[in-house]
């Protein structure tokens, strides 16, 4: 099973400090999944590794054979994944622009019929919960339906060090139990959906919207 962890931060600004708080949250999820699931193929996607350019041009808008190599490679990873862990801070009570921008580069058919897990965090006390509520809608539209459990990490800099390790040893077990609920749901759904995709190809059965946005319209 391939699980992609997508980090939703490209922030360089100081303040607020520390920069890219999300990197440690994503690392904590990676460490948790790798320890819990040694046979899994766990990969962290960092938007800083990709140059999306100033002009927005999604993957599906390029002519075949003209897609930038890095964008195509990322599309392949998203297509090959069985499940997604979406890690986002809260920006004005919404998911981060960095996460939305990365995900928006790819058509929903690449994400569809696979589960996702919502992980949010904050420097302050709310843990990104307001962003998380909106993420359900966003991820559902992509077709990677979020599992019911969510993970929220308030005061993330106090919970995790720079490498994503728990600062307080006595709290680590409770955090791991909390993470486990979400990741277990994710893996259960990924197993179920992956098995069923082998039996019935949903892309053939339902058909993907690939021609133009009006394919979504109700009949007149
Ligand atoms: C434009 C902007 C809007 C923000 N809005 C919120 C918010 O609504 N709720 C919140 O808890 N934090 C908010 N923050 C704080 C960020 O969530 C915080 O800086 C977080 O560490 C960002 O994640 P990062 O460090 O991984 O980039 C905002 C920060 C910026 C720059």
Q: End-to-end distance, in Å?
A: 42 Å
Residue share in helix: 40-55%
Which CATH top level class fits?
Answer: Alpha Beta
Oligomer: single chain
Q: What is the count of structural domains?
A: 1
Order of SSEs: EHEHEEHHEHEHHH
What does this structure look like?
With about 220 residues, this protein is an alpha/beta fold. The chain has a single domain, classed as Flavodoxin domain (Rossmann fold), CATH 3.40.50. Helices cover about 45% and strands about 15% of the residues. It contains 8 helices and 6 strands. Strands 1, 2, 3, 4, 5 and 6 form a 6-stranded mixed sheet that branches. It is globular. The N and C termini lie far apart (about 40 Å). The model has no long low-confidence stretch (mean pLDDT about 95). Bound molecules: flavin mononucleotide. The site of flavin mononucleotide has 16 residues, from helix 1 and strand 3.
Secondary structure elements and pairings:
Elements: E1 2-7, H1 21-36, E2 41-45, H2 69-80, E3 83-91, E4 94-95, H3 97-104, H4 108-111, E5 116-121, H5 129-142, E6 151-153, H6 156-159, H7 169-199, H8 202-206
Parallel strand pairs: 1-2, 1-3, 3-5, 5-6
Antiparallel strand pairs: 3-4
This protein binds flavin mononucleotide (FMN).
Summarize the structure in short.
This protein has 220 residues and is α/β, with parallel strands linked by helices.
Q: How would you describe this structure in keywords?
A:
single chain, 220 residues, alpha/beta, Rossmann fold, six-stranded mixed beta sheet, 8 helices, 43% helix, binds flavin mononucleotide
């Amino acid at each position: 099973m391939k699980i992609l962890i997508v980090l939703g931060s490209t922030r360089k600004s100081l303040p607020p400090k520390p920069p890219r708080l999300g990197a440690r949250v994503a690392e904590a999820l990676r460490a948790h999944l790798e320890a819990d699931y040694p046979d899994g193929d766990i990969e962290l996607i960092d938007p800083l590794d990709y140059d999306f350019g100033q002009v927005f041009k999604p993957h599906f808008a390029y002519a075949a054979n003209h897609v930038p190599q890095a964008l195509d490679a990322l599309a392949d990873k998203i297509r090959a994944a069985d499940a997604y862990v979406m890690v986002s801070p809260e920006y004005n009570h919404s998911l981060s622009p960095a996460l939305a921008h990365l995900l928006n580069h790819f058509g929903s058919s690449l994400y569809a019929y696979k589960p996702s897990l919502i992980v949010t965090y904050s420097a302050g006390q709310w843990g990104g919960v307001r962003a998380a509520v909106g993420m359900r809608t966003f991820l559902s539209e992509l077709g990677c339906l979020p599992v019911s459990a969510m993970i929220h990490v308030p005061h993330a800099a106090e919970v995790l060090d720079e490498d994503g390790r728990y600062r307080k040893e006595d709290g680590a077990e409770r955090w791991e139990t909390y993470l486990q609920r979400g990741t277990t749901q994710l893996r259960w759904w990924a197993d179920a959906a992956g098995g069923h995709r082998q039996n019935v190809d949903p892309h053939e059965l339902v058909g993907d919207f690939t021609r133009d946005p009006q394919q979504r319209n109700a009949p007149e």
